[in-house]
Amino acid sequence: MIRKAVGAIVFQKNQFLIAHKVSINTNKGKQKIKGEWDFIKGGVEENDRNLTDTLFRELEEETGSKDYRVVKEFDEKICFHFPDEIKMKIGYDKQETIMFLVEFLGDRNSLNPNDREIRELKFIDKDKVAEILTHQVTKDFFKRHLIV
Question: Using the 8-state DSSP alphabet, how is residue 82 labeled?
C-alpha cells in the first residue's frame, strides 16, 4: 500500500522552515518517535478536495497559520519505503510525497503547532537546511531543487 502525501518547503526571505516531529499517526492513534527534523508533510485524506487543500490543512495543523502562498509544485516526488517497525503501525509500505515550494507571509512569532506531532518549528539559513534534516532522501531533494 502506498501512502499519498504532500510536503511544503516553506521559506520566508532567505530562510527555510523546518519542524521537529516527535510523533506519528498510527492505526492506534499518535505514537511517539525519537524525533526527526523535516519539512511540513502530511497524508492526503479522503475529505481533501485536492492537493492544495491537503497542503493548506497540513500547514495549518503543523504551524497554526494560514498565511501561505504556493510558489511552485515540483514535478519530482519524494518517495521512500517505511521501515518494517513503522509499516506494521501505519498500514503502508511506501510513501509518495508531492512537494511544494511555499512562501510564509505572516509573523514568525505567530507560529504555533495545533498538532502534538510537532515539538518545535524554526527558520534556518539555506546553507544549514541539509545538515539538519533527518532523512537523506529529503536532504537530497532539497539540494537538487533549491541549492544552486
Answer: P
Task: Give CA separation, 142 vs 28, 38, 48, 88, 119, in Å.
Answer: 32, 11, 26, 29, 22
Return the CA Rg of the chain. Answer: 14
The domains of the chain, with CATH numbers, are 2-146 (3.90.79.10)
CB 89 within 8 A of CB 28: yes
Q: Which three cell numbers stand for residue 35?
A: 524525533
Position 18 scores a pLDDT of 98
Taking all residues of the chain, what is their mean pLDDT, rounded to a whole number?
91
CA dist 132 and 145 (Å) reads 17
Ranges of residues in the chain with a pLDDT under 50 are none
Determine the Cα–Cα distance for residues 143 and 22; give it in Å rounded to an integer: 24
Cell reading at 131 = 545538515
